[in-house]
Amino acid sequence: MIAALRCVIFRDLLLAARRNSDVLTVVLFFVIVVSLFPLGIGPDPKLLRTVGPGVLWVAALLASMLALGRVFAADHADGTLEQMMLGATPLGVIVAAKVFAHWLVTGLPLVLISPVLALQFDLPRELLGVLVLSLALGTPVLSLIGAIGAALTLGLRGAGALLALLVLPLYVPVLVIGAGAAEAAATGLGGNAQLLLLAAMLIIAAAFAPWATAAALRISVE
Amino acid sequence: MSINWFKYSSPQTFFPLAGTLAAFFGTLAALACAVGLYIGFFVAPTDAQQGESYRIIFIHVPAAWMSMFLYVVMAFWAGVGLAFNTRLSGMMASAIAPTGALFTFIALWTGSLWGKPTWGTWWVWDARLTSELILLFLYFGFMALQAAIDDPRRADKAGALLALVGVVNVPIIYFSVKWWNTLHQGASVSLSKSPTMATTMLTAMLIMTFGFWFYGIAAVLLRARCIVLERERGSEWTTKYLRAAA
Fold first, then answer.
1. Is residue B143 pLDDT above 80, yes or no?
2. What 3-state DSSP class applies to B186?
3. Are A121 and A43 spatial neighbours (Cβ–Cβ below 8 Å)?
4. Which of A128, A126, A165 has its CA nearest to residue A146?
5. Helix, strand, or coil here: B51?
């Protein structure tokens, strides 16, 4: 089972490396959306400092949602997904591996680039650590929850907009607590409570989401 | 004598029963709403602090309760459908969604009508309001997913899974008032301690709740009948029924 896990992760990473423009699109989307906000609301540094963490979080959420359609689409199109379902390895394990690889490719770059963007919003340096940590804990939850939606909408017409409608409401608690972590740190409360809650969400999502995603895939591929 | 629990899980036997029950609960709903609104608007005293505007709770609170309750019922039928693979459960779940969304919308709308004179604003980003709004989005997501899938069996199962995932949200709504208590007042009605509102107000509100509940049952059963007819069209008994009705 561990071998299958490693195999799927390695395969998906290799595929992503061969088609690296897909990865760059997501990161560029994140950067552009974040850069649009100062243009829309004005360059006042005080205002930007207050909205900064929230803007980064919303942009990261949209960027990771944009990438969701690709988690299963290619494997579904060429029949690999059906072979994975027929195989001996439990589907939940394969799903977990695919979601992890997907996060490494689309979530982790967002986390790594976020401190640079945070500086554009003039966020104080003490906040950067909390912000990055909250994104590092939160974006995998987004990928895990989003995978359920991606599996449910697999092969449907208008899947993109539908996926947003299904997944965004479920993202709300992660957004509230994730953006709240940086906010709490900014007011001197420290973001520990929120970070622990995010970690708890990550554990729960990691335990249950792959299982639900596997069930959704079985419904979609019949 | 053993009871056949699955007798009414067949669309054919369910259909006439649903018709009778819908008429019964529809009448009860009309009666309860008439009595509840009468007590609420003419008998219940004016509130000392909020004046007449408080009277919107006779619609707002029952609608909010029903909006959450119906989501749980929908998830229940969804779970039954997934577990027992019964066709009717999926039809019930998709019949409940529009009524649930309607009650959620009414709760949000009346809430903002009440919030303007009382809090001085149409909308605040309070935990309970926000979670009610998310509940509305969850209903919309459920309906949109089912509408996007052409095969009814797949639509039922996919919707069922989504409803079960979303039902995690309903307890968050209910407990949010304790967790993040912000502007929205705490619950005034509880089973464990005596209520903090006048008895006539409470009576009117409870009667209205039953009125909304019965309306919900009647509307859902009527919609379920339509879905049954649509999905079972071409079978012998529906053809016979439709010919007799025409």
1. yes
2. coil
3. no
4. A165
5. strand
Interface residue of B154, B164, B167, B176 to substitute, partner A, most A CBs within 10 Å: B154
Q: Which residues pair with B47 in a beta bridge?
A: B51
Q: For residue A142, which phi and psi values (nearest 5 degrees)?
A: -60, -45
Give the gap in angstroms from C-alpha A222 to the nearest C-alpha of chain B: 9
Residues of A whose CB is below 8 A from B132: none
Strands in A9-167 per DSSP E: none
| The model's pTM | 0.86
Instruction: Give the model's confidence band at B56: pLDDT under 50 very low, under 70 low, under 90 confident, else very high.
Output: confident
Q: List the one residue out of A107, A104, A105, A126 whose CA is nearest residue A115.
A: A126
8 A C-beta contact, residue B224 and residue B95: yes
Report whether B155 contacts B146 (CB < 8 A).
yes
ipTM comes to 0.85
Rounded distance between C-alpha atoms, residue B217 and residue B72, angstroms: 14
- B9 and B86 in contact (C-beta within 8 Å)? yes
Residue appearing with tokens 């309306």: B215
**Which residue ranges make up each domain of chain B?**
31-44+58-181+196-241
Q: Report CB contact under 8 Å: A212, B161.
A: yes
Please report residues of B whose CB lies closer than 8 A to that of A166. 141, 144-145, 162
**Calpha distance B30→B33 (Å, rounded):** 5
Helix (H) or strand (E) holding B90: helix B87-119
Contact B165 A148 (CB under 8 A): yes
CA distance B125 to B119: 13
